[in-house]
Amino acid sequence: MARIAGRFRRVEPRATARAFVLGLLSGAERKNCWQLAEQAGHNRPGAMQRLLRSARWDVDEVRDEVRSYVLEHLGGDGVLIVDETGFLKKGDRSAGVQRQYTGTAGRIENAQVGVFLAYASEQGRALIDRRLYLPERTWCEDPERRSGSGIPETVEFATKPRLALQMIEAALDTGCRTSWVTGDEVYGQDPQLRAALEARGVGYVLAVACTTRVRINEDRTVVQAVAAAATLPPDAWHRQSAGAGAKGPRYYDWAWVQIGADHNRCLLIRRNPATGELAFYLCWSPGAVALSALVRVAGIRWCIEECFQAAKGQVGLDHYQVRHWISWHRHITLAMLALAFLTAVAVSTKPTRSTDPNRPVRSSDPIHLTIPEIRHLFGSLLKRPASSVKSLLAWSIWRRCHQAHARSCHYRRRLATSSPI
């Protein structure tokens, strides 16, 4: 918290921000303003709500501190990973919400979509940047909706790959040392993103669809990626691990095919040994690299899914109940800070070397401290004494009064807009 203290102009929001982050690290059932205020011992959620909406502090400056904090603790020459995640919502007033596909639900749902940037190294992984995706027609071209949700006039429509590139360039401009960027098909299919990374000398391993057309052979024949894989001889495939999974190394068969005239540009193909299912990646690097290097980067892409799981399950990334543009960014950024703290603690608790290198590893030895375990231990240490009956009842009465007022407003609005039969 000392790192971000200077980003607050007054002591009151600074203290509230500390209570907010401690609440995110606690065992509170839901990490919204109501429950975080009760967890902090406040009488009302007003201070927490003001922190997210009207208090004067620069959320992007705090985001920059989160990024530098992560880079300091996870070491250099990691991999930048881009991906989006959905936040299921009701209604139509939350900034950026509409019916759209989200992998969170696996179908089209009413949701907001956030594009995120993660940093992963051998030490660990964490989220370092975020952008809220605004659909073009339903939001960017609707001044009334924009104004109602507090979207700044300077914010224009940007595709998800464009938002990803903005975050990547911001990380590189602030001194992030990385040789690779990876992402799924949404980003691999965008030629502008690939060209921008090449212009900055940053290699990439980006997933693409099986129908992607590539140039192979000396005569530069254009074929679909799946057709290029079908022509490979058996000895072109190599069994390699894409990294450690929950149940052991993730072994796949891998092959690569040079595409175009650039010797450092290739199509990487992954085959599931059990099902034969294929996945394809467009790869480029400023210098010659081994197949194992591309396989490592392709396998690291799944780290951002682990970040989403930890952020939503441990620090309430998706527990917010806000509609405003600035409120969304403030909640998300403070949740990223809480996740970064847990990641830094996990890194610091890993032993640098065994006290006895000749001692064999036994199955009874505990694994390294995980983020969920650290959050549980930290939350237990911060657990407040049992609230008095008077305090519990006061919060119960306040919640029920607030809910009664909200219900009354909804009924009046419905009756006013409904025509008699």
Automatic annotation (TrEMBL):
Report the residue ranges that make up the Transposase IS701-like DDE domain in this protein: 8-222
**Domain of life of the organism in this record?**
Bacteria
- From the record, what ranges are coiled-coil? none
Write down the PANTHER family for this protein, in alphabetical order. TRANSPOSASE
Q: What is this protein called?
A: IS701 family transposase
Source organism per UniProt: Actinacidiphila polyblastidii
